[in-house]
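Figure 6 in text form: structure in, sequence out.
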């Protein structure tokens, strides 16, 4: 949903950090080669809010994390499997 609603590339999704989201302004700071800020629509904002509540309480700064094995941010291939 985030890729479609915010126009993000796969590598940008995996690069999102906990502090990339400005919850008050509904903005997403997209790190990477094309650093930019994207205004989140209601659907994307609600989805991110829901995930932030369900996100495991881990020390990783990656917003999206996997807990298979060691806790870490997802790889591009992992996200690609969810989308496809």
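Output sequence:
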């Amino acid at each position: 949903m985030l890729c479609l609603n915010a126009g993000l590339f796969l590598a940008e999704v995996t690069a999102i950090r906990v502090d990339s989201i400005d919850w008050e302004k509904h903005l997403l700071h997209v790190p990477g080669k094309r650093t930019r800020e994207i205004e989140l629509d209601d659907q994307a904002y609600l989805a991110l809010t829901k995930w932030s509540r369900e996100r495991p309480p881990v020390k990783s700064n990656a917003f999206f994390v996997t807990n298979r094995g060691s806790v870490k941010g997802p790889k591009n291939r992992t996200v690609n499997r969810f989308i496809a």
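Caption detail: The mean pLDDT is 79.
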